[in-house]
UniProtKB/TrEMBL annotation:
Species name: Datura stramonium (Jimsonweed)
Signal peptide bounds: 1-20
Keyword list, A-Z: FAD, Flavoprotein, Glycoprotein, Oxidoreductase, Signal
Transmembrane feature ranges: none
Chain segments annotated as coiled-coil in the UniProt record: none
Family stated for the protein in its record: Belongs to the prenylcysteine oxidase family.
Cofactor: FAD
Phylogenetic classification of the source organism: Eukaryota, Viridiplantae, Streptophyta, Embryophyta, Tracheophyta
InterPro entries: FAD/NAD-bd_sf, Prenylcys_lyase, Prenylcysteine_Oxase1
Descriptive protein name: Prenylcysteine lyase domain-containing protein
Pfam families, per the entry: NAD_binding_8, Prenylcys_lyase
Span of domain Prenylcysteine lyase: 145-473
Amino acid sequence: MKNLHLVLSLILISTATATAVAVDSESSSPTVCIIGSGIGGSSVAHFLRSYSSSAIGTIRIFERHDVVGGRMATVTIAGETFEAGASILHPKNYHALNYTKYLNLSVRQPPPSESDSSFGIWNGRDFVFKTLSSTSNLPIFQRVVSFANSVLIFFRYGFSLFRMNSFVDTTVNNFLKYYEGFESRPVFETVDEMLKWSGLYNLTTRTLQEELLDAGLSARLIQELVTVITRINYGQSISISGLAGAVSLAGSAQGLWSVEGGNRQMAVGLINQSDVKLHLNEEVESVSFIEQKYQLNTTKGKSYSCGITVVATPLDELKIQFLPGISIPERKLQHTYTTFIRGLINPAYFALGSVSEVPQLVGTVETPDVPFSSISVLKQHKDNDMSYKVFSRRPLDDAMLDQIFSVRNETVKIDWAAYPHYHAPEVFAPFILDSQHLYYVNAFENAASTMETSAVAAENIARLILSRLTGQKSLTPVKLKSFGDDAYDVHADL
Ligand SMILES: Cc1cc2nc3c(=O)[nH]c(=O)nc-3n(C[C@H](O)[C@H](O)[C@H](O)COP(=O)(O)OP(=O)(O)OC[C@H]3O[C@@H](n4cnc5c(N)ncnc54)[C@H](O)[C@@H]3O)c2cc1C
């Protein structure tokens, strides 16, 4: 893998030319309007500014809410703040890592006591598997318990665990191609092309279950551990695509991290650093292509003229009107109901005698008998006072919550239109929604939905815009102006 910062400092030679798509006749530096201030929209702004100092004029970001970050959001419950949406990053999520460095943010890794938290798989009647929990704060004791748990997991799932890791490692290694330098990495006009180039496309044509059976995993591992993970990370079963499944499994790896104080600070920082005009509380209602320009009309009754428009939000549940109309494949979003509770779990619900016997992470298998996908302890304040996060596919009413929890001092419920409902084979929307300059970052979400995949798609969209503006497939010359010397060290250690 290349050191991207070195690569980006190179003067890149155009190897192929494409037809430049005219923007507007008066200005050579068009206004870019971005709909959505999540990691996707903020990354587009960041990469446009980083890759070109002159080709782009004003950048406007429109956000319908009063805060930036989208699905990166925090929730405050009983005075404590937690990630409400996207919470974990993989150690090889290099854009997120580099944003964190560039923006002087701090990496948060779970303390050892948290990462070794006890875990159980619940089927609605019994725990089919349960690890030991450490009752001591002594590091030596915790290490013994951790070792014993590794043995327990190996006894239950055997060598299939190694096959699962190998499946995930291969996928992650293919994904790392997206950090290669410009001289070896093309600009992609379609998601299909982007996935085929990295060797990931075939994984989107088959289900995770098919892929894992072919990889030699046991039925028990797939029905239990893998199912638990896909239910936690995507709220879905093992019939999701192989690629979404591999990404979901990678989200249970060692070394996961988050941004201290909230992942959304990445979007805040990128927007602050990218000379952006931010329009908060301003929802884009329509996008009309009139006389070679996009006219964006917003809920504030205002109109904006933009040479380039980037949609950086899933269009599936939105009512933005496009003129002329656009055509994208139908896609359903998976809703994930996230319920935060400050209180105490009820051990009797799990047929257990005490709270300490209930695993700190309760995962579940596919069965209609369980109303939730997972319950995890976010923080133990005292023995009888904890913060929990519950994921479920349907809303949990108070009567149900009162069965699962014996004490509920505060409850916060969020209904997320969380990610695509994955299926195989996936069909992808275009990155370029018309033949002009209307782009769609979230076309890539059918491959996998994560903060990093949004950033990777956004980086490609920024390159696509610049290459189509200039008519060149590669950019010439490009030098990062705003990053520090080591900002793009893709070998950064956490
Ligand atoms: C519960 C949950 C848990 C998750 N866990 C993880 C995780 O642990 N790790 C991980 O990497 N990913 C996780 N994800 C996925 C991750 O959050 C997303 O893939 C990623 O944040 C998508 O970013 P985005 O910028 O593409 O879209 P979004 O974050 O959805 O941003 C789109 C923005 O556009 C705005 N918008 C929409 N329509 C308009 C309009 N008409 N006008 C103006 N603004 C508009 C929205 O308000 C929003 O702010 C999780 C998601 C959820 C919901």
